[in-house]
Amino acid sequence: MQVFKFGGASVRDAHGVRTVAGIIQQQNPNQLLVVVSAMGETTNALEQLIGAYLRRQDNTYDLWQRIRTQHEQVIQELAGEDQTAFGQVYDLFAEVESLLQREPDPYTKPDQIYDQLVSYGELLSTRIVNAYLNQSGLDSYWVDARRLIRTDASYREGKVDWKQTCEYITDSLAELLSTSVVITQGFIGSTGEGNTTTLGRDGSDYTAAIFAHCLEASGVTIWKDVPGVLNADPKWFDETVKIDQLTYQDAIELAYYGATVIHPKTIKPLQNKNIPLYVRSFLHPQNAGTVIGNFEQRLPIPSFIFKMNQTLISFHPKDFSFIAEENLSKIFGQFAEFGVKINLMQNTAISFSVAVDNRPDRLAGLLSRLQEEFRITYNEGLELITIRHYDDKTIERVLVNKKLLVEQKSRYTVQLVVKDLNTHGL
Hints:
Elements: E1 2-6, H1 14-25, E2 32-36, H2 42-55, H3 60-79, H4 87-100, H5 110-118, H6 120-135, E3 140-142, H7 162-173, E4 181-185, E5 188-190, E6 196-198, H8 204-215, E7 219-224, E8 229-230, E9 242-243, E10 245-247, H9 248-256, H10 267-271, E11 277-281, E12 290-293, E13 303-317, H11 325-338, E14 342-347, E15 352-357, H12 360-370, E16 374-388, H13 392-398, E17 402-409, E18 413-420
Parallel strand pairs: 1-2, 1-7, 2-4, 3-4, 7-11, 10-12
Antiparallel strand pairs: 5-6, 8-9, 11-12, 13-15, 13-16, 14-15, 16-18, 17-18
Helix pairs in contact: 1-6, 2-3, 2-5, 3-6, 4-6, 7-8, 11-12
Organism: Larkinella arboricola
Family: Belongs to the aspartokinase family.
EC number: 2.7.2.4
């Protein structure tokens, strides 16, 4: 069986939903599970809504109305005057509105409320896709991923209970997949108590890998708005090259360093069962794209990854002690407690430096805590450039009009923390 995953860009409007339906209809209707993300920028809009709801802002309902209106417009374009097949979408609208009318529970953590509300992006998009497929004559069955993917209570970053999850998936879907296309949600799961969780931002790729692993799929296809895995983001490079084949190792390295085409957690469940991952364009579905699998050949060309809006933080022990195990343990413990991920780290005898995403909501508390024992300096507004399979020429290319603050090299990878001296970018 096959697992398909469609991201938000592919279902951002009615035309996109029709394109997705066309791709699905060209496949064998049996033994196909389809994972769908929230439509377009819905997750960002829901995050705004959640912030307003938690702060009880006056514009909370207006923010929700915009989200609802966007989905209703898609329904109207797909269904015309007969919208009976989309009735369950309106049930979800009612659920959100009922929740927003209640005061936030002071005994419920904000991250738990976040997961409960943000999950409606995927629930709405999959209900719409499923209704359209059935209206178009394809036997499609909607499944709630929260009933199948079991996680712990780490809200916003749920850790999967693989044993229970695989039992639920195989017991629920093995027979169903023999007769219907199954439509389900990316990004979401639930705890043993039934509370909604999410798997981390942009986690729908990971969801597809979870289902594929548990069902022992023959392949996973991620449908994107790019022709495959490119050696650089087209936003930063005018000339990019599509990579036809990637090893699991190179793919996981690129994802780990921030390549946005694949979620970092996606590769491991697939590699463990030798399941190939295909990255293809939903704009040109006839093209082959990129295949990631158990190949021997390494990356044929350098690959570039840019992470913007980075903060470089340096810690210096106030007692002038060495940066050794005891100090590192304190620092890492606080980073874990505040949920701050480190993108690069480097230490000298008496200083430890890290590059992190600029998250003021988390960094303020972290730095306040660590200031008790460390003198802290930091620079904001930086870029982290990672080059996989680099050479001197590629390094020189990306350092044009840049001030180099940190350079870190290994055999295959170089990371550069830089300040852009040219406000217009590369």
